[in-house]
Design goal:
Mean pLDDT of chain B: 80
Structural class of chain A: alpha+beta
CATH superfamily of the largest domain in chain B: Multidrug efflux transporter AcrB transmembrane domain
CATH topology of the largest domain in chain A: Multidrug efflux transporter AcrB transmembrane fold
CATH superfamily of the largest domain in chain A: Multidrug efflux transporter AcrB transmembrane domain
Strand order of the largest sheet of chain B: 3-4-2-12
Number of helices of chain B: 13
Helix content of chain B: 55-70%
Shape of chain A: elongated
Largest sheet of chain B: 4 strands, antiparallel
Oligomer: heterodimer
CATH topology of the largest domain in chain B: Multidrug efflux transporter AcrB transmembrane fold
Strand content of chain A: 5-15%
Mean pLDDT of chain A: 83
Distance between the termini of chain B: 28 Å
Strand order of the largest sheet of chain A: 2-3-1-4
Number of domains of chain A: 2
Helix content of chain A: 55-70%
Radius of gyration of chain A: 25 Å
Order of helices and strands of chain A: HHEHEEHHEHHHHHH
CATH architecture of the largest domain in chain B: Up-down Bundle
Low-confidence stretches of chain A: none
CATH class of the largest domain in chain B: Mainly Alpha
Largest interface: A-B, 80 and 84 residues
Number of helices of chain A: 11
Number of domains of chain B: 3
Largest sheet of chain A: 4 strands, antiparallel
Low-confidence stretches of chain B: 149-159, 496-503
Number of strands of chain A: 4
Strand content of chain B: 15-25%
């Protein structure tokens, strides 16, 4: 140890030695995320930083399962789209003609066994007619495997607004709590980390939305809020240790204090992330399609959160503390 | 020691109580796990009411409840959400279209007399209406006949409405025809316009469905069509008699208007000139199908809605998809737990085993609380539960890491365990409080699915504080009471030096 004052033994590594690397890595990732979201925003088919799902846009999504077991006759998206345009639906209950189905998006999954249709908003009666009439190309369906979700445009707006507001409110409340328990500096750094984690998660989904057509729904908003809470918890544990040993290591420079604290909490940070990730990975592997992207968002967010609580928040502390 | 035993006794008692609770109150599963339909209705402001309040919502709910009872769906629930929304859950129902139709319409029934001097216009409109209806019916019959299994309807070529005539009528009435719409669409547009024009020829309503005391249905003597029969209260009966008397023998019509659509036009013969149609009963000859007649009967019995509603969300999920969701979530949850258990035992040894026991208790308590409150378990709810397990493990990791540090620093075993718990406490508390803050925000501002997640995560966080700080601690202290277990190597891997391989 080259430090003039006695520094407690470091078991793993001194995080400050690598801080330039950590900052540049995070800066690059943030930049990529922002680029992804801007590309999404400017893309004519999306027009928002993330590709909004049914929950936010409104409309009808119908999921069908064909009753053909393992030997399904192949079916193409074009066949389905042609059939959709041929359908005869009754008029909407509020008056007005039947919706135009030319804009429908069709997905064929599981080797032709299950189908997902994204349509303009349909009344329950129209949905029933559609499932009846589509059998002309799909063959018989399994009634127990059908799922129909319709979200009206007003509810879509409401869900979007609710999600954004609850995100912002929970950020503000968490910041207030850390300010109360620690101080403003810590709160600012914890919030910075939180934005970092949320930004990277959103960035990844922006790219997924651009390249793979992955959509975000209300569950994604839930995942973001959870990531935010988790990121702050992670950061707070490190800060808690810095504060605890502050009197003990008073004579050491802040950089060394940070190194000691990060080193001491490193095992805990990694183990905690790992134990939280294990159930999530189980959800990704065995959880079925409905929770797949939710678990994915959480996995990414928690990994990034653990990274930022080790590499970003503590290493920024000496820089910000000196300026004060 | 005595204090430890007290805690252990309490924990055991709680575990038994939780088990008993789970055995007697089964967990409530959401529709996404057992299949069924969910409809969300938004009450719309109308007339003098610009903002829907609690009172109006309750009034709407009351009417809807009567209609739902009329529908006879088992186990359905209707709940209010916020100030202007209602959620109807129909477990096991695969086709919500009928419920949507019966619940979504206002069902305001009006009896109105035709304005005098409008006979000429009315004749034209009625002829158009008869033609359009006949053509539509025949098309319907032909479509039915084309499907195998249904009796082939022999359509008689009566009132024909050729395409040119249809286009001309549409043009005369000033109805814009959407490009590419079929003849059936155009006929329906025509019919809707004709019906609303007929309504315009009536006087304001003299009698409404409010004065009904009952409704029924009966099949017409000739043909398959159904009539809906009505019986008025005394006041309504008198009103009806006066109304029919005023137009009897004049050639003007009695219009029966439902939600602004003319559903039936009746002539009143001169024989009723003296006293009107008395007796407090009437029937609507609207050529209804059996289903339509039954639905109208249900709506009229339930009364009309004080405010219109709009269906803003419909979710239907098949039972096999629901079962699939349960199965995969169960597999994921158990696999995740097993992985975590293996990890804890490998890394933390004796305390790891204690953590596994206390985490199993934690899972049991969680489920018992779900049954007790009761929490309806949905897919996001299960996700919240699985995530809260991660948080609960984190508390144990924080404690055991601290214990290890103290041991490495040369502190005695018992003292290390005690200071491990007290030193880790502030971190654990902070983590749980920030988590709970998020839950409160989600619960207060989120919607259905999000709320389910927030509830299970919050319950998980609160219970995790209890199990980490009492269960883990008490069991660990109890075990440390046995001298044979009081070995540092049960807590900490021996230092990796070539000499100290075994101790």
């Amino acid at each position: 140890m080259t430090s003039p004052v006695a520094i407690p033994p470091i078991r793993f590594f001194r995080v400050s030695r690598y801080r330039q690397l950590a900052w540049w890595g995070s800066a690059l990732a943030c930049l990529l995320s922002v680029v992804g979201m801007v590309l999404c925003w400017t893309s004519p088919s999306i027009g928002l930083p993330l590709r909004p799902g049914l929950d936010f846009t409104g409309g009808t999504q119908i999921q069908l399962e064909r009753a053909c077991g393992s030997d399904c006759v192949a079916i193409t998206v074009e066949q389905l789209q042609q059939q959709l345009q041929r359908l005869r639906l009754s008029a909407a209950p509020e008056g007005g003609a039947a919706p135009n189905l030319a804009t429908a998006q069709v997905q064929v999954l599981d080797g032709g066994r299950s189908l997902t249709l994204r349509l303009p908003e349909l009344s329950p009666e129209q949905s029933a007619q559609l499932t009846d009439q589509i059998t002309a190309v799909t063959g018989p369906l399994v009634p127990a495997g059908t799922s129909v979700n319709t979200i009206g445009p007003t509810l879509g707006d409401q869900l979007l607004r609710g999600s954004v507001i609850s995100l912002l409110v929970s950020f503000a409340a968490i910041a207030a709590y850390i300010t109360f328990r620690y101080d403003r500096l810590y709160a600012a750094l914890a919030l910075l980390c939180l934005f970092h984690d949320v930004l990277l998660t959103c960035g990844l989904f922006a790219w997924l939305g651009l390249l793979r057509g992955v959509e975000v729904d209300s569950l994604f908003a839930v995942a973001l809020i959870t990531v935010a809470g988790y990121s702050v918890t992670d950061t707070v544990v490190v800060f808690d240790r810095i504060r605890e040993q502050a009197s003990l290591l008073r004579d050491l420079p802040v950089v060394d204090q940070v190194d000691v604290a990060v080193d001491a909490t490193l095992t805990r940070s990694l183990y905690t992330s790992l134990t939280t990730l294990l159930p999530l990975i189980a959800l990704i592997l065995f959880g079925g399609s409905s929770l797949f992207w939710f678990a994915m968002a959480l996995t990414v967010g928690i990994t990034v959160g653990s990274w930022s609580s080790i590499g970003i928040a503590p290493t920024l502390l000496p820089v910000v503390a000196r300026r004060r | 020691m005595a204090r430890q035993q007290g805690w252990i006794a309490l924990i055991l008692a709680l575990a038994i109580a939780a088990g008993a609770l789970l055995a007697s109150f089964p967990l409530q599963l959401g529709l996404d796990l057992r299949g069924g339909s969910q409809l969300m209705l938004q009450v719309m402001p109308a007339g003098s009411i610009s903002r829907v309040g609690r009172e109006q919502l309750e009034a709407v709910k009351e009417v809807l409840e009567r209609r739902i009872n009329g529908l006879g769906v088992a186990e359905s629930t209707l709940q209010t959400v916020g100030d202007d929304q209602l959620v109807l859950q129909l477990p096991g129902e695969q086709d919500p279209s009928r419920a949507a139709k019966v619940l979504g319409t206002t069902a305001l029934l009006e009896f109105r007399a035709q304005k005098s001097g409008s006979e000429q216009e009315m004749q034209t409109l009625l002829r158009l209406k008869r033609q359009a209806t006949a053509v539509l019916n025949r098309r319907q019959a032909r479509a039915d006949a084309a499907q195998p299994g249904s009796p082939s309807g022999s359509a008689s070529p009566d009132a024909e409405l050729p395409d040119e005539a249809l286009a001309k009528s549409l043009g005369q009435l000033g109805i814009p025809v959407p490009p590419g719409s079929s003849a059936t669409d155009q006929l329906e547009l025509l019919l809707a316009e004709v019906n609303s024009r007929i309504v315009a020829l009536y006087e304001p309503a003299q009698l409404t469905g409010k004065d009904l005391v009952g409704a029924g249905r009966q099949q017409q003597q000739a043909g398959n069509a159904w009539d809906v029969t009505l019986s008025f209260n005394r006041e309504g009966g008198d009103q009806f008699a006066r109304l029919t008397q005023s137009i009897a023998g004049t050639g003007r019509l009695l219009g029966i208007v439902l939600d602004g659509r003319s559903i039936s036009e009746a002539t009143v013969g001169p024989e009723f000139k003296a006293a009107g149609i008395s007796g407090g009963g009437a029937s609507i000859t609207g050529n209804f199908s059996a289903d339509e007649a039954r639905d109208l009967e249900v709506q009229l019995r339930g009364g009309s809605l004080p405010l219109p509603v709009r269906i803003i969300e419909v979710r239907t999920i098949g039972p096999s998809l629901g079962a699939e969701n349960i199965r995969t979530s169960l597999v994921a949850g158990l696999a995740g737990l097993a992985l975590v258990a293996v990890f804890m035992v490998v890394v933390y040894r004796l305390p790891g085993c204690v953590a596994v026991i206390s985490l199993s208790l934690y899972a049991l308590f969680n489920l018992a609380v779900y049954a007790l409150i009761p929490v309806t378990l949905t897919l996001p709810g299960i996700a919240g539960f699985i995530l809260s397990i991660g948080m609960a493990v984190d508390a144990n990791v924080l404690i055991f890491e601290r214990v290890k540090e103290e041991l490495r620093a040369g502190t005695t075993l018992i003292r290390s365990v005690d200071s491990g718990f007290s030193l880790a406490f502030s971190s654990i508390l902070d983590g749980h409080v920030t988590g709970l803050i998020s839950c409160v925000a989600l619960f207060a501002l989120g919607t259905g699915l999000v709320k389910g997640f927030a509830v299970t995560l919050a319950i998980g966080l609160l219970l995790s504080l209890f199990t980490a700080l009492t269960c883990t601690r008490s069991i660990l202290r109890l075990l440390l009471g046995y001298p044979s277990l009081r070995r540092a190597s049960y807590f900490l891997a021996p230092p990796a030096s070539p000499a100290g391989a075994s101790s």
